[in-house]
Structure formats: C-alpha cells, structure tokens
Specification:
heterodimer; A: about 400 residues; alpha+beta; five-stranded antiparallel β-sheet; 3 helices; about 15% helix; about 40% strand; B: alpha+beta; four-stranded antiparallel β-sheet; 25 strands; about 25% helix
Chain lengths: ~400, ~475
C-alpha cells in the first residue's frame, strides 16, 4: 500500500514538472505570436497614417492656404494629387523642436516658431495659426493609442561651401541618401547686395548660370564679374536636377554681425509678413543699429527660374529697434505664389540678406512634426518619396503603440 | 507502474510539442517591422515622373539618360534598398490582346525572395491621347443644351445645393457632348426660350432643356397671375358650383408640356416629383408664397403639375379638373410613388463604364413614375436607367426618358429622375447619354510605341 502511494507521489511530481516545462515552452511560443501581432498592428497603423498624410489633402482641402479650422488632416497637394504634398500645409505644422520667439512691439504679444534653417534663411511661423501635434493626433484618430513622428526632408542634399574667398568661388556638392550625384544639372542664381549712389536703401544684382557636377558629385562655381567673398554680401540658391530628382540648396554671406532683419509670417491666408529687428527678439551685448531695408519677392517657375512678383505695403524703409514708430514694417505678398522673399538691409557700409521661403520647397526646408519615439520598444517606420512643387522629398512616419 | 505511465504521458506531451513547433513556424516579432516596399516603389515612380523625366527616358535609347535614371534611383533610395526596374513595351494585336515585351532593365543587386513591386503605365511624350465625344445630333442637326440657371428662382428637394450650383455641375458633365450649351440665367431668358426667341444663342427646336431646380421650376413673371400672359401660366378652377375656388399654376406646367411637344424638346427633371412647385423670387414675394418648408418665392402646384405637363405634351385639353367630394383633383391625381431601393439595368452599368460616370448603382427612388403613363399619354419609354420595380400590382420606373410618339401630335420627351434627395446630377447625365448614345472617340493606348509599362521592384537587404 505504501509502495503504491509513493509510486503515485513520484509520478504526480514528475507529471506536474513535465506540465510546467511544457506550459513554459508553449508560453514562449504564444508570447512570440502575441508580440508579432502587436508589432504588426503598429506597422499597419504606420502605413495607415502615411497613406492619410500623403494621399489625402485634408479637410478643407486648401487648409494650408486659409485660416479655416482644420477638420481632417492630410498634406497632399489638392491640385497635383498622387504623391505630391502641399508646400503651404507643411508650413502650418508646428515643429516638434523649435525656438519660440516673442514679439511685443506691435502692441500685442505675437508668438512665432522659428523653423531651423541655415544662415541666410528664416522661416518664422505664427503659432496661433499652426496646427499642433495633439490636434493632428485627434484628427488622425490616434490620440492616446499611438504616437507618431513625421519627418519631411529633401531627397537630395545640395551643400554649398566657400571654395575661395577672393575672387569668390563656391563649391556645390549634390548627394542623395545612397551616393553622390555626378552629371547633375546645377541651375543657380546669386544675388549680391550693394548700396545705390542715389538711395539709402540697399539693392541687389543677380548672376545666374547652369553647370553640371563632376564625377565626384561636386562643382566649383566661379562668377563673372567676380565677387570678393570677404567683403561682399550675397546669397546663392542652387537647384540640382538629375533623372527626375530635384534638390535645392542655398548659402548666404553677410557683413553684419547681429543687426539683422527677421521676416515673420503674420498671416498665411493674406500673405502678410512682419519685418522686425533681430534685437527685439534676441538679446545681444551692445546697442542695435538702425537698418535700411529693401524687399523683393520672387516666384519659382516650372523651370526653376526666379520671376519677380509685386509686393504691397512697406516694401522698403528703415527699421530702428529703439524708435517705436520704426520698430517694424508690414508688407503683403501674393499668398498663392510659391517663392522666396528677399530682404536686403544695410547699416553704414555693412550689409545683410535674409530669405523667407513662401512654401517650404523653394529653399528645401525640412519639417519635423510629432513627438520623440525614444524609449519605446517597437517603432515602425514607413518611408515614401514625394514631390513638393517638383522638389523631391522623403517622408518618414515613425509610429509606436502607447498602450505598452 | 504509475511512473511508467507518467513517462508515457511526458513522451506524448513532448511529442505534441515537437510536432506543434515543427508546423507552427511563427515569424519573429521583428519581422512586423519593415517599410511597405510596394508603396515606396509606387511613390518613387511617381516622383521620378513628376516632371516627365521618367516618361522621356523610357522612350529613348540615350545611354546618358538611362545612366542618369539609374543614378537617380540609387541616390533616392535608402542604401539598404535594392531595386530592379523593368520597362515593357505594350502592343495590341487585332484581337485586342495586349502583349508585353521587355525593352529595358536596370538593377543594382539580386533582390532575393523578400521584395515587392509596383508599376506605372507611361505614355510617350510625343503622343497625345485624345478622348473626343461625338456631338449629339452631329454636325448636320446639332442639338442645343439649355440649362436653367435662373438667378431669380429657388429650388426644392435639392438639399445641400442650389439650382445654380447644380447647373454648373451639369454644364461640366454634359457640355462636351453638345455643340452649343446655353445657361438660362434668369426667368426673362426663360421666357425668350419658351417663345422661341431668336435672341437666344443656340437652336431652340429639338433642344434639351434641363431643370436643375429639383421639384421646382422657374416661371417667368409674365406667366404669373398678374402677368400679361397669365392665361398660359395661371388657372382658376371654378365650375360655377358651390365648390370653393382653387387657383393653380398647373396651367404653366401644361404650357411647358405643350412647348416641349411643339419644339420637340427633351425636358429633364433631375430629382423628385417633377413640376411640383413654381418659383420666381421677384414675383412671389408675399409672406404666404412659400413651399411650407421655409423656402420662399415658391408656390406649390402639387401632383397636377406633372399631370398637366403630360396632358400638354400629348396635346390633350388642359381642363381635367374634377371634384372628388372634398378637393379638386387633376387627372389621375398623384401618380409618382416611393418604391424604395432600385438597381441599375445592365445597359446602364455598361454605359457607366463607357462614359466614365459612376453614380450609386442602387439608390432610393421615392418618386418613381408608373409605366401606365406610357399608354395614357402615348409615350415610348427608352433609356431605362433602373430596373422596373413592381409595387401593389403596378410597374414603376425610377429613371427613364419618355418619348412622345403617338396620339394626335408627335414630338417631345420627358426625362424624369424620380430618386430621393440629395440629388446626384451624374444620374441625369447618364440618363441623357444613354438616351442619345453619343460615341466616344478614343485614341488606342495599345498602339506599339505609344505606351510602356514600367515596373519597379524593391528589396530590402540586411534582414527585415
């Protein structure tokens, strides 16, 4: 009797041990399947978000060009369709990481978000007219369930560096994510600023040309008549084309240190621009100088040539940080024209130039929207190629689950 | 003994596990991650063709252009993505069988098994593909399309639209099929149309007249009660007995029917019960001049409107009023009825594909007309859009064109779309196109050398 009981106990112990081992093994199998299924859901959500963002213009379809309330989110260019994004809708995205600039000289507190650009370019958008991450997440139906981040970057990197200062020559290098682009067509416009003898307001003259990159994907540009890169103030914009890809790069050189004019977009729908003194939004040692300025708005043609359009309002004048009547200037451009606003300014014999892109593509501005995915276990990414007013861009959407 | 049995159980358990794992090959959770290569491929093709560069390259043998395309592909795709781009020439033989011949191929690596592809049909930049509709009536007897766009009239049963906005939509849809399209911009112009005035553009005889105001129809001021031509638009029902008077604008609808027959028009009602109201916002300004639903400048005619129109179309006398014991009734009274959901005919489905117009194939018809009107008014039903539906022993048609072909006089037609609101003018366009059946002249896409199919296959290297 005792032998049978011991036999039962041993067999039961072995059976329970075997069941536990089997359950643990199956558990691992099921856990893998559950993880895969969860990750698959996140990956599918990434595709859904990408399709909505790239293949829908949103509601209203022209929301990027108006001040209407956004009812549905999407960035597709309603006039072009397909994988073409609206350069105006992207401008209204409140960047994820950006400097907030306050301006009070108009009598009310105006807040702008400074989209990061290299020297010579500035894109300051009014926060009140931008859409933020929370509202977009709600419109996309992912608020609280999924997080996402949207990155829109030019496909081609067109970098311009000073090759020789005097006489000025500039080296242009064109690269894609994969390799450098040889034989790419470079179409450039260089604007140099000077003071006319009969006016206090600066003016500029332009040089343009067409070149091709060499085997290393670069080209040194020389100019005739020559410029002195140490003393002259200039901006150059280069459009690079190859096999259907189009990229843009720019470079500016000025002789003024901190006395700059900053162009803020005050109203998207009306194309209203507010020109302010750099000292009124940043702090510097010393005292500010009064700046004589002049403005020109260029639209971009289908052949990537600049054509001048009219501006209304204070197109030239004096901006003096210390005098309230001259603290700022307002002007208005045609909001439906994709282009670049050139603001040239001077104090004494020093000059500066600032470019405001109207439509992100004209100066190849990148956009980053959403929250940081750092810390999440699984982040699905989705990549597409798009064109924004014929400039080639990559769009990347990173998505992750917020439910753990 | 028990221990031996337990060992048997363990062997069975392990065996089951081994068999399960052998067949249940679960993917690694990391495999869920990965770019949608098909969409990336599609977006790449579209981007490269945004300025027509891809179209130009695939139709040329220029080695530099192909080298540039290869560089563009390599430069635009992430380094871990490999590609294979194939270009197929399309040709169509006499039996309309399309064949694909590989013309060009560029690739930067072997793709392996984990790849996806998309395609883009590219047409030669040297070839223009035309799609020219035949003009209705041809060049010898061109038919004019008149669209009522009266600024001094309101519509009803066109929820969400105005008559003027629908007129613009109809213009966009149908004007390519007509030599001349004329918008009738106010009721004064409408009077010119009714009186066959030569001051109007186009040819009034044999014209198509579309009324986009839904159940309402604009009425010129001169045809109203106080106008000089009130006898063609207004009628006071009075048989001299003790019955109360009844004033009605069904006489105007009768005039419209008579004019439709006289000028051999095709009168088109786009939605709802035809001719249920008359509207003139300049004349009907009394506080009582509304349709009962808040739309002013409008007076209800009711079912007598359509009945009177059909009497006019058939050349019958106007006065068909009868006292039924409690109210005046014109002819058969209310004839249109609700038959719920209706279905496209096979012919209508074919024509949707032919003309590229795709309204809903199964809408609700709340104002369908009985087929009995065909014998009562000498009408020949053609261009049936929805299948005939039986209800309470009677057959009903939701949308068709009724040609007046018998009786004492001939000529004229009524296209009646008896669907419920919200109106879909694509059904109207389809009904007219099915009725007139104009040919679409298309350039053949399959002609050799005019179209190529570009496929871009992408693969991801380094695992997923």
């Amino acid at each position: 009797m005792a032998g049978a009981t011991i036999d039962h106990m041993i067999s039961l112990t072995i059976l329970i041990a075997a069941l536990l081992v089997a359950m643990m093994t199956y558990n691992g199998l099921f856990a893998t399947a559950v993880d895969y299924d969860r990750n698959r859901q996140v990956a599918n959500k990434a595709v859904d978000l990408m399709n909505t963002i790239c293949l829908s213009p949103g509601n209203p379809t022209d929301w990027g060009e108006t001040s209407d309330t956004l009812l549905g989110f999407g960035l597709q260019d309603p006039e072009a369709g397909g994988y073409a994004l609206s350069p105006y809708s992207i401008m209204r995205l409140l960047p994820s990481e950006s400097e907030i600039l306050n301006y009070t000289k108009t009598g009310t507190l105006l807040q702008f978000s400074n989209v990061s650009m290299i020297q010579g370019g500035f894109l300051g958008v009014p926060i009140a007219e931008c859409v933020n991450y929370t509202s977009v997440a709600e419109l996309l139906g992912v608020n609280g369930s999924y997080g996402f981040r949207l990155n829109i970057v030019p496909t081609l990197s067109v970098s311009i560096t000073e090759y020789m200062p005097n006489p000025l020559s500039l080296e242009v290098e064109v690269r894609g994510p994969g390799l450098a682009l040889s034989n790419a067509t470079l179409q450039y416009v260089l604007c140099s600023v000077y003071k006319p003898e009969d006016s206090d307001f600066p003016s500029f003259e332009s040089r343009s040309g067409i070149e091709k990159t060499g085997p290393a994907g670069s080209k040194v540009l020389e100019f005739d008549p020559p410029l002195n890169g140490l003393e002259d103030t200039y901006s150059i914009i280069v459009y690079a084309r190859l096999g259907g890809l189009v990229g843009v790069g720019y470079y500016s050189h000025g002789t003024i240190e901190n006395d700059r004019i900053i162009p803020f977009i005050e109203n998207f729908e009306q194309g209203e621009i507010l020109l302010v003194h750099n000292w009124d939004v940043h702090e510097f040692p010393g005292s500010p100088s009064a700046l004589h300025f002049n403005t020109t708005f260029f639209g971009l043609t289908n052949n990537f040539e600049l054509t001048q359009f009219d501006i209304t309002g204070e197109t030239s004048g004096l901006i003096n940080s210390g005098v309230s009547e001259q603290a700022y200037a307002r002007l208005q451009i045609n909001p439906s024209e994709n282009g670049i606003l050139f603001v040239s300014y001077r104090t004494g014999n020093t000059f500066g130039i600032m470019m405001l892109p109207w439509g992100v593509s004209t100066l190849g501005v990148s956009a980053s929207f959403g929250v940081d995915p750092t810390g999440y276990d699984f982040v699905a990414t989705e990549l597409r190629q798009v064109s924004i007013d014929d400039i080639s861009y990559h769009v990347k959407v990173s998505t992750w689950s917020l439910s753990g | 003994m028990r221990t031996v049995e337990v060992f048997f159980v363990i062997i069975i358990l392990l065996g089951a596990f081994a068999i399960t794992t052998q067949f249940a090959v679960l993917p690694s959770p990391s495999q869920a991650f990965g770019t949608n290569l098909r969409e990336l491929s599609q977006s790449t093709l579209e981007t490269l063709d945004a300025q027509g560069t891809l179209s130009q390259t695939v139709f040329t043998n220029d080695t530099d252009a192909w080298a540039d395309l290869q560089k563009a592909l390599s430069a635009s795709l992430p380094p871990n993505i490999v590609y294979n781009l194939n270009v197929y020439n399309l040709s169509t033989n006499q039996d309309d069988v399309v064949t694909y011949h590989l013309e060009h191929s560029i690739s930067d690596a072997n793709l392996g098994a984990d790849s996806d592809a998309s395609s883009l049909l590219v047409t030669s930049p040297d070839v223009t593909f035309n799609q020219d509709p035949q003009k209705i009536g041809g060049t010898e007897h061109p038919i004019t399309l008149y669209i009522l766009n009266c600024s001094d009239a309101n519509g009803w049963w066109i929820t969400g639209y105005t008559g003027q906005s629908l007129a613009a939509d109809i213009y966009d849809l149908l004007s390519p099929y007509f030599t001349t399209t004329v918008l009738i911009n106010d009721t004064d112009d409408l009077e010119l149309l009714l009186e066959n005035s030569t001051s109007l553009e186009g040819t009034i005889q044999n014209a198509v007249v579309v009324n986009p105001f839904g159940e309402a129809v604009p009425i010129p001021a001169n045809y109203t009660q106080t106008g000089p031509q009130h006898d063609e638009g207004y009628y006071l029902v009075d048989d001299g007995s003790h019955h109360e008077y009844y004033d009605t604008y069904s006489k105007y609808c009768y005039t419209l029917g008579a004019k439709t027959q006289q000028y051999n028009w095709t009168w088109v009602s786009i939605v709802g019960y035809p001719l249920y109201y008359v509207s003139n916002t300049e004349t009907f300004t009394e506080s009582s001049d509304h349709n009962g639903y808040g739309i002013h400048g409008m007076i209800q005619v009711g079912p007598p409107g359509l009945n009177a129109f059909l009497h006019g179309l058939d050349g019958q006398n106007y006065d068909q009023w009868q006292w039924n014991g409690y109210s005046w009734v014109y002819g058969e009274g209310s004839i249109a009825t609700d038959i719920d959901v209706v279905q496209f005919t096979d012919n209508a489905i074919d024509k949707c594909n032919y003309y590229g117009i795709y309204p809903s194939p199964s809408p609700t018809a709340s104002r369908a007309l009985p087929t009995s009107i065909e014998t009562a008014y000498h009408l020949n039903r053609s261009a049936l859009i929805f299948k005939i539906k039986e209800q309470a022993g009677k057959d009903y048609s939701a949308a068709a064109t009724y040609r007046h072909t018998g009786g004492a006089i001939e000529g004229g037609a009524l296209t009646a779309i008896g669907l419920t609101r919200i109106p879909d003018v694509r059904v109207t366009a389809l009904a007219l196109l099915v009725y007139y059946n104009p040919t679409i002249y298309k350039t053949v896409f399959g002609a050799s050398g005019t179209s190529v199919l570009v496929t871009l296959q992408l693969g991801q290297q380094g695992g997923t």
